[in-house]
Amino acid sequence: MTAPTTPAVAPARIHEHITDAMKAPDLIRLSGNVVLARFETMKVYAALGAVRTLLRRGRIVPGQTLIDSSSGIYALALAMACHRYGLRCHIVASTTVDAVMRAQLEVLGATVDQMPPSQSLRLDQERRVRHVRQLLARRPDFHWMRQYHDVVHYAGYREFADLVTEALPGSELTVVGAVGTGASTGGLVRALRGSGRAVRLVGIQPFGSVTFGSERFSDPEAIIAGIGSSIPFGNVRHDLYDTLHWVDFRHAMAGAVGLLREHAVFAGLSTGAAHLVGSWEAERDPGRLHLVIGADTGHRYAERVFARHAEALDPRTVRPERIHTLDDLRPPWSVMEWARRSHPQSVVPAEESS
Fold first, then answer.
1. Coil, helix or strand at residue 310
2. Maximum pairwise Cα distance, the chain
3. Which of 5, 36, 62, 108 sits between 20 and 30 A of 219, alpha carbons compared?
4. How far is CA 129 from CA 77, 118, 126, in A?
């Protein structure tokens, strides 16, 4: 056996604010053609990029209150961006935001209105949007960040694209990640393609999301609201995506537990789903590098996912069903070549449709 060698120590960087330390991911090679970009909170890129752009354009000013709806990691990212730039923050939080996350928000100075327990994530999301509108009616001086619809959230991901280009040079690349609001995968891939690189984009959706047409299904265990949507999102550019996978809770759980078991990486459910999908995609295209997006850590899933690790499916034994139209879509895992086409239905932001 060859003795392990001590790696060279890179010079340490001193950051001016915690957001600078958090925004850059750890790049971890999971296999020969799969690299994981693991974030503590990926949406720091979105929040910082948006806040800086809005300040530069004069659309917001220091001391103003920024408000938005969130199921978790964007709330923390926005609170940190406000902390950095002398802004106030108000979060209308999903029922899925846990006590640890809420405590962090409040200590950072954010005020929080949390939705009560709900029978469905759709109702939770609709309640949040309605509550934001009510607050804005009383406080027109608040600025609604509209993470679901304002394209300003794409701006921060150009910096991530530059990091990817430097760390993973070459021509062909496949990016695998949750669709969510559309800004993270969309912003990264649009910037990479803009530089002339050949990039495939593989998106992941939960069953029940309207974004790519699975709203007729329900997943009773679903707690992965952040990777899909029960309302249309204006920031989703459907024509950026080459392939779509729909994954249920149990398969996302298998990916998350498998990632920790195989690679000692503790990450959230959207990362678990991306790991599962990325491994399957990489097996079928071994000559192409696959970048898997890991949006956050696994801490908020400790009880509902990782404490149940004995129940987890073996990710090596599950496979998706290939479909050709949305009519064929079926749980628990389906894959379809989307081929960069527009969504057949017009997308109208929820707050603009009423």
1. helix
2. 69
3. 36
4. 19, 14, 5
